[in-house]
């Protein structure tokens, strides 16, 4: 019998919250990481890449 529940198990939600909190605090403690993450995502999303972002 298959369950129609679309949510993951509760332990995975708790694990994601705990692990995500650690990553969030790392980004807050060192803003350089936040800048690097922003630059990488903006270059991947931009059609011109890093060249268009730096102009």
TrEMBL record:
Coiled coil: none annotated. InterPro entries: RHD3/Sey1 (IPR008803), Sey1/RHD3-like_3HB (IPR046758). It holds the Pfam family Sey1_3HB. The keyword Signal does not apply. Keywords: Membrane, Transmembrane, Transmembrane helix. Residues 3-42 form the Sey1/RHD3-like three-helix bundle domain. GO terms for molecular function: GTPase activity. The chain crosses the membrane at residues 32-54. One of its GO terms (cellular component) is endoplasmic reticulum. This is Sey1/RHD3-like three-helix bundle domain-containing protein. It comes from Solanum bulbocastanum (Wild potato).
């Amino acid at each position: 019998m298959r369950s129609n529940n679309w949510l993951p198990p509760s332990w995975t939600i708790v694990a994601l919250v705990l692990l995500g909190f650690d990553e969030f605090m790392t980004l807050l403690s060192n803003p350089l990481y936040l800048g690097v993450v922003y630059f990488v995502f903006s270059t991947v999303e931009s059609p011109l890449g890093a060249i268009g972002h730096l102009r």
